[in-house]
Specification:
Elements lengths: L4 E5 L6 E7 L2 E8 L7 H6 L1 H24 L4 H19 L3 H14 L4 H13 L3 H14 L4 H7 L10 H4 L3 H19 L13 E3 L19 E4 L6 E7 L2 E8 L13 H12 L6
Antiparallel strand pairs: 1-2, 2-3, 4-7, 5-6, 6-7
Helix pairs in contact: 2-6, 2-9, 3-4, 4-5, 5-6, 6-9
């Protein structure tokens, strides 16, 4: 992506940024405002987080066609990719980062949905200081295995992931981390739309299959009885179960240390994020 002038568009607000990419840097050239009215979560996330979502969404679109082709390759591709992946892990443990990176890239070329390979590729780019590439990989990681979001944020404790973007690099560490966190959480929700519900505030209550899209990934929890999930950043907890396609929320626990106005209004999206982020990555 280096040395290009690109346009990236936010998937729902219609905002467009023209950017110039250089060696491990991104510079905004121009900005076109939203074409639709923004929702409260989009507005509260901030322009910089929306810019990251636009960049990440653009990267995901470039991968779509290749991904569709590779899904047809089946189990043999997974086995071959797994062998190469573990060679890469051995090289990474020996601190041979460039060789490890080549192995992870090769494994992903064979099997695009290889979450562990994407995560380790992210780590190597991060260790090498290649933050644009690391940010691209982080996007892929959370769409495949949202549970790794917490590990990404822990690794980025100094806010380096957004440091390649000129408009963000001058901000304080916690501001940079917050922008990356908000953008990755929005990417998780956009991967598969959350259950859509409104005005529910008593427990237990049920969000039925009819009229809603129950995600394939929640098969991990289907008919397993009540479960508790915790949101990776707010600390909120929900006790819920999925039975016969219905999502039943039994109880909600708000952390004492968090004020209501810090949680935003999109509680359905946060529940969706918490459920996705709790599901073990593929291959675990």
């Amino acid at each position: 992506m280096n040395g290009e002038i690109l346009k990236v568009r936010h998937p729902t607000t219609g905002e467009v940024w023209t950017i110039e990419t250089g060696f491990n840097s991104i510079r905004e050239i121009s900005y076109e405002g939203p074409t639709t009215e923004m929702s409260e979560p989009e507005r509260s996330a901030g322009k910089q987080a929306r810019f990251l979502v636009a960049m990440m969404s653009s990267q995901m679109k470039r991968e779509d066609e290749r991904e569709r082709m590779q899904k047809a390759m089946g189990a043999s591709a997974k086995r071959e990719a797994n062998i190469i992946f573990y060679k890469g892990k051995d090289l990474e443990q020996q601190d041979k980062l460039e060789e490890a990176l080549e192995a992870y890239i090769q494994a992903i070329d064979i099997y695009e949905e290889f979450g562990k390979a994407w995560f380790h590729r992210f780590k190597v780019h991060f260790k090498l200081g290649q933050m644009i590439e690391a940010l691209d990989c982080a996007t892929r990681v959370v769409t495949i295995a949202p549970r790794w979001l917490d590990l990404i944020l822990k690794l980025d404790r100094d806010g380096k992931l957004a440091s390649s973007i000129e408009e963000i690099e001058s901000l304080e560490i916690e501001e940079r981390r917050e922008i990356v966190r908000n953008a990755l959480l929005e990417i998780i929700v956009r991967t598969e739309p959350p259950w859509l519900y409104r005005g529910r505030n008593k427990y237990p209550h049920t969000f039925p299959r009819g009229g809603y899209r129950v995600m394939q990934k929640t098969d991990h929890y289907t008919d397993k009885g009540p479960q508790v999930v915790k949101h990776p950043t707010t600390g909120e907890k929900w006790e819920f179960e999925i039975s016969r396609g219905d999502l039943i929320v039994h109880q909600y626990y708000k952390p004492n240390s968090v004020k209501d106005n810090a949680l935003g209004t999109n509680s359905d999206a946060r529940l969706h994020q918490a459920i996705l982020a709790s599901i073990p990555p593929k291959g675990d």
